[in-house]
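Q: Could you fold this chain for me?
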Amino acid sequence: MSRTPSISVIIPTYNRAAFLREAVASVWAQTETDFELVIVDDGSTDATPQICAGWGARVRYLRQPRRGVSASRNHGLRVAAGRFIAFLDSDDLWAPEKLARQRAWLEQHPGVLLCHTNEIWIRNGRRVNQKNIHRKAGGWIYPLCLPRCVISPSAVFMRRELFEAVGEFDEDLPLCEDYDLWLRVTARHEVGFLDAPLVIKRGGHADQLSQSEWGLDRYRVRALLKMLHHGGLPAEWQHATLAMLLQKSHILAQGYAKRGKTLPASFYAYLIEAFGAEAAGQV
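A: Sure. Below is the predicted structure, expressed as structure tokens.
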């Protein structure tokens, strides 16, 4: 009988055959070898199925109809055998010691469910510096996560229990699904951080989801509304969440109004009116 691996590496992918080869190579180059590799193909129409077939039993290849990255990650989670989970986006790469260092860190900190690392950013083939607003940190970082996503899915290493505690990725969010999950995580749990660039994030290509639509803040607003609805936040964090909701709603209302889209502009104006009164009552 084969032994169950300790770590499940999950790669969601869609029409990224060329990138996928390199991502998988960076997984196989890991100094930590006690893992299974799960590739979830979200209905690719390129050579992805043929490439994965060529890897044979070295990967667990799952194919599903096109449903989005959240459904792909969740599909991988549901079949994963490991007690630790690591995600890798199919256009990113890992340093060889990534899994080993994060596993060692979590084993030294048994009360922490997730740790993440720093990263190197590549845009259109050139390295770019991260701005201070994107700085990474560990601890109780919920306030740092409110403006934007500061945890990369490719940089996390988690105990399986994390998803039992906070739930899976929200499949109703086509974008900013990671922002939504990290809000739920950091509102309830301290996170670990290794200040080492163990991930190479490659961006700038045309199919990158974060560049595909204007107004990503509309998905962040949905996540913020969920946090306010479910409650349980400390008073200071509740107030910070309300303030961020209002800030993003102002931006969206103005943006939609400039584009002549009165219906969505009116919706965000309504949010400003409704939650503005609540925020004023907390001051």
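A (continued): The beta strands are 7-13, 35-41, 60-63, 84-87, 93-94, 114-123, 126-128, 156-159, 192-203.
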